[in-house]
Specification:
Blueprint (H helix, E strand, L loop, with lengths): L2 H9 L17 H6 L8 H4 L5 E2 L4 E2 L15 E5 L3 E5 L5 E6 L5 E7 L5 H11 L11 H12 L6 E5 L2 H8 L1 H10 L1 H25 L4 E5 L12 H20 L5 E6 L7 H6 L4 E4 L8 H8 L4 E6 L1 H5 L2 H17 L2 E5 L9 H14 L11
Parallel strand pairs: 7-8, 8-9, 9-10, 10-11, 11-12
Antiparallel strand pairs: 1-2, 3-4, 4-5, 5-6
Length: 372
């Protein structure tokens, strides 16, 4: 059975030899190397993963850009011992600080869109669907297409973002006020993005047999969404329908959304909008794949939902998580992964043990078979 067949049999709740052995969003490599992971290995290959998927990174996927293009020139505007003030590729000016542990934290100082004039300039300069560079050059594109025609693995495509993109360009607070003060501008921006995504995606879906599309939002926090379901229905649902119906018309029937936080209030709306896959299902935010499977049955598919805090707790916590999720794995339509990035407090030994237990409940060992 090929990796692609295995993926689709899992997503269709059909019998399979095992479920796909996808990569978690790894990881604290410096710590793991100090704890025994070989220095000179590619972690993806070393752990034997056979797929890596997220909204902004991953392989295999169609390498196109549906967001800001061309990017702003990244530059340092000011610098001190404890911080740098930078302009990012999306135009945001941010203060990047380092704490004593060497980890970065960010304070957003200014966003590229503050009013309609800013939006129109940003749209014209950075959101042209025909801008050169959104796709690889023609020679590389033809090589990719040739390789994909012979593939035995699934490939994905980025389908865009509505709230997430606009929030990044305006800021949470200003966007929240704008929903009240200037709803017409919000409609205009999201409607434009839907048209942008369709126009950018068209070449790919007409020339490549794509397995699934992935949206990104991060529209939720720990206890619920940042806008009401009614606002989602008003501003975002028509946009989702436009993009998902276009994709379905070109054979891409499976759409996922990557959204942190508690997404439960929005799941029915995403389903209505043509999205039926959900990731990462953060346990700390109250998400539970067992409960969601009972509630929605085979109407949805999922990946994620392995509590990162329990993995950090060691073997007892890992075993408890695997027992909790094993019934959902057995039913199909679910790939267990750590629910977001793998944090620094997960040791190399505990991560390896988690992978071994995940393989056990997934129906076998990954290829190549490896003893860590």
């Amino acid at each position: 059975m090929t990796t692609r067949e295995r993926f689709w049999r899992t997503m269709r709740f059909e019998p399979t030899d095992r479920i796909p052995f996808w990569a978690d969003w790894i990881g604290p490599f410096e710590r793991w190397r100090a704890e025994g992971m070989p220095e000179d290995v590619d972690p993806f290959e070393f752990f034997g993963f056979e797929g890596l998927v997220s909204a902004f990174w991953g392989d295999p996927r169609v390498p196109l850009n549906v967001g800001v293009w061309p990017p702003f020139a990244e530059e340092t505007l000011d610098e001190a011992d404890a911080y740098r003030i930078v302009r990012r590729a999306d135009g945001v000016i941010a203060k990047v600080m380092k704490n004593q542990a060497g980890l970065q934290s960010v304070q957003f100082l200014r966003f590229p869109i503050e009013n309609r004039e800013d939006w129109e300039r940003f749209r014209n300069e950075r959101l042209d669907p025909e801008a050169p560079g959104r796709y690889p050059d023609d020679d590389q594109w033809e090589k990719l297409k040739s390789a994909w025609r012979q593939r035995d693995y699934p490939i994905s495509i980025d389908a865009g973002s509505f709230y997430g993109f606009v929030r990044d360009w305006i800021g949470v607070e200003s966007l929240s006020v704008m929903f009240y003060d200037d709803p017409g501008l919000i409609h205009e921006m999201m409607d434009y993005l839907a048209e942008l995504f369709v126009r950018v995606l068209r070449r790919a879906v007409e020339e490549v047999d794509i397995d699934f599309a992935l949206f990104w939002e991060d529209i939720c926090y720990k206890t619920g969404p940042l806008i009401s379901p009614a606002m989602f229905r008003q501003f975002m649902l028509p946009c989702y329908r436009k993009v998902t119906s276009f994709l379905a018309g070109h054979g891409v029937d499976l759409c996922w959304v990557d959204c942190d936080g508690n997404i439960e209030q929005l799941i029915p709306l995403w389903i209505e909008g043509g999205v039926r896959g959900f990731y990462p299902l953060e346990v700390a935010a109250g998400m539970d794949a067992v409960r969601l499977r009972r509630q929605y049955g085979r109407e949805i598919v999922m990946w994620g939902n392995v509590d990162k805090r329990e993995v950090a707790r060691g073997r007892e916590g890992i075993d408890a998580e695997m027992r909790r999720l094993a019934p959902v794995v057995a039913e199909g339509g679910f790939i267990p992964l750590i629910d977001h990035c793998v944090p620094e407090d997960i040791s190399y030994g505990d991560f390896v043990y988690y992978l071994e237990r995940r393989k056990e409940i997934s129906g076998g060992t990954c290829a190549p078979d490896r003893t860590f």
